[in-house]
Design brief:
- This protein has 106 residues and is α+β, with helices and mostly antiparallel strands.
- Helix content is 31%, strand content 20%.
- It has four helices and five strands, in the order E-H-E-E-E-H-E-H-H.
- Helix 2 (60-72) crosses helix 3 (82-88).
Length: 106
């Protein structure tokens, strides 16, 4: 979902397993995404750019989406709630930095 926020056109997501899968949507909106959620359906309209902002990871997958969106955003994105990311990704900031990302853990 994070990358579709920057894609041209409309993307539609339907979640049939976890009711609360879209916890990260509010945080993507803070970065400038255009997402509408109705029940189990999320509709994403691509925007020209995302802007850095402070956001909070509420779960593992949503946290990963925020990292991806933050890396694509212009400016600085500060992500709190790293305990969720740490559950699934060991030293994610080191792995991303090795790929050329401008990321650090404070």
């Amino acid at each position: 979902m994070a990358m579709t926020t920057l894609a041209e056109g409309t993307s539609i997501f339907v979640e049939n397993i976890f009711e609360s899968r879209y916890k990260h949507v509010g945080e993507l909106l803070r970065l400038g995404a255009n997402i509408k959620v109705e029940g189990r359906v999320a509709v994403v309209e691509g925007v020209a750019r995302l802007s850095g902002a402070p956001v909070e990871a509420a779960d593992l997958r949503g946290g990963a989406a925020l990292v991806v969106a933050g890396l694509a955003a212009q400016g600085t994105t500060e992500i709190s709630g790293l305990k969720h990311l740490d559950r699934g990704y060991e030293n994610i900031e080191k792995s991303l930095a090795m790929l050329g990302a401008d990321v650090e853990r404070i």
